[in-house]
Amino acid sequence: MSTQTNKVEELIELRAQARLGGGEKAIEKQHAQGKYTARERITMLLDEGSFEELDMFVQHRSHNFGMEKKQFLGDGVVTGYGTINGRLVYLFAQDFTVIGGSLSETMALKICKVMDLAMQMGAPVIGLNDSGGARIQEGVNALAGYAEIFQRNILASGVVPQISTILGPCAGGAVYSPALTDFTIMVQGASYMFLTGPKVVETVTHEVVTQEQLGGAEVHARKSGVSHFSVEKEEDAIDLVRKLLSFLPQNNMEETPVKPTSDPIDRLEDSLNEIIPDNANQAYDMYEVIGAIVDDGEFLEVHADYAKNIIVGFARFNGRSVGIVANQPKALAGVLDINASRKAARFVRFCDAFNVPLVTLVDVPGFLPGTGQEYGGVIVHGAKLLYAYGEATVPKVTVTLRKSYGGAHIVMSCKQLRGDMNYAWPTAEIAVMGGAGAVEVLYAKEAKESSDPAKVLAEKEAEYNKAFANPYNAAKYGYIDDVIEPRNTRFRIIRALQQLATKKQVNPAKKHDNIPL
How far apart are CA 72 and CA 39, in angstroms? Predict the structure, then answer.
């Protein structure tokens, strides 16, 4: 047998060793917990046969606490590139079978390498997170590794899409990388995120709490908003990454991909002519409106369980991706509050960064009143959404369905925030406030002096509604470009987007903005 043959056999053997990660027993333990290995996850995510691995033979450099005896090829993370639906992506998958997936200096270098490549090639970065945190044995070197990753997350923000899937533990400083990325996906019952664990919490605050209660998928999907998506199992998380990417461009210099559709541009939806209740205080479901107007009824909602009074997500009109922002009358009457403002502002800014046009469906009675909101800084948080819309230079199409009152009218992509095409249904009510509240301010003295105050207020409210609670007053000033028949909404949005496809708008030159945080 020749020397070359021996060398080739050695290579094959080393590759096989690297692919075993922490070894067969560790893999069996991973499977016993209902979790896939890093390599199995990559196989599920990427197009078949497309994965090209990098740094398979990297090993850690630590000699503290006997670590020189614990050497594994690849050092706990699988990195490389491949394709999803034929489009280039870079990714890293932490391997929990190797020292609990803990982050070492060399693991960080591997992750940083693929992030650097993604930036150079203009392709998305996907992180499959499953790690016990920093490798304690490496001390400050592990912390430096995290900081190197975070710095790249920051520089890549708004340049290439970044998606984090949490498929196991993600604790301590490790949580900041997903928090810096565009979208975070968590798996119910299997993944969790927190800065300090249950034991530390109990020691410091005397709260007794489980990992799931402290930082599980449901907690972050519903309460904190840290997670954009919560799914039942790993396979769902992988499928969701593929679906999400189908709506996004490769980078900030490209347009969104086009998906051919047989859904007619001029499809009429007669149901929309009847969807607004006669009673202005009665709710209807905004999801029905969205489903009726987008291509094939397909809508990928983001933050579905968080701040349900506003809906955000991706859809397509005539094959082209758009971001949809819509008030939801079925939740808190569709009012804006702190969480809804933050949720929508972040989504609007993402869409603007990646050339995704914005379609806004408005039915908003105002901002949620109360000390809880004011003490929580609703002014600043509402200003975030205002800022996001005013800053955005992508095509913006706004349709007002019913209520659009006061400051909330301004915040929801009004004409003065550079809304390109602003339409309204005949049922739209665009005013400083609702009729009942307005007449109490305007005619309080007259009503008080009357023998029948209620009658006076009722008559004045009817007069006010006729004069102001309609779309024609705003249309008179050009603030509404057209009043449209509800069933034609899909057609009018598509026509507007086609017109705006070549839009060019540039903000003033600056180092960066200072959004109210």
Answer: 15
Q: CA distances (Å), 421 to each of 323, 352, 416, 487, in order?
A: 15, 16, 11, 18
- Whether residue 474 contacts residue 424, with contact meaning beta carbons closer than 8 Å, is answered with yes
Residue 251: partners with Cβ closer than 8 Å, 6 or more residues away: 122, 123, 159, 160, 161, 354
What are the two backbone dihedrals, phi and then psi, of residue 362, each rounded to the nearest 5 degrees? Answer: -110, 125
DSSP 174: G
Active site residue 408: yes
More confident residue, 11 or 443: 11
What predicted TM-score, i.e. pTM, was given to this entire model? 0.94
Distance in angstroms (rounded) separating the CA atoms of residues 378 and 400: 23
**Euclidean distance between CA atoms 95 and 56, whole angstroms:** 12
**Catalytic one among 158, 291, 319, 407?**
407
**In Å, how far from its chain's centre is CA 237?**
14
What is the DSSP code (8-state) at residue 100? G
Q: Identify the weakest region by mean pLDDT among 67-76, 92-101, 246-255, 435-444.
A: 67-76
Q: What is the token pair recorded at 3? A: 């020397």
Which of 37, 114, 120 is closest to 81 using CA atoms? 114
Catalytic residue (choose from 171, 408, 438, 469): 408
Chain segment 447-503, per-residue pLDDT in tens:
777 877 778 778 777 888 777 778 999 999 999 999 999 999 999 999 999 999 999
Report residue 504 CA to chain centroid gap. 25
Confirm whether 173 is a catalytic residue: yes
- Backbone phi and psi for residue 283, each to the nearest 5 degrees, phi listed first: -85, 160
Active-site hit among 80, 100, 132, 172: 172
86 is catalytic: no
Instruction: Tell me the per-residue pLDDT of 70-89, one tens digit each, with 9 for 90 and over.
Output: 777 878 899 999 999 999 99
Tally of helices (H runs) and strands (E runs) in the chain: 20, 17
Q: Among the options 158, 173, 291, 319, which is catalytic?
A: 173
Q: Distance between CA atoms of 246 and 298, rounded to whole angstroms?
A: 12
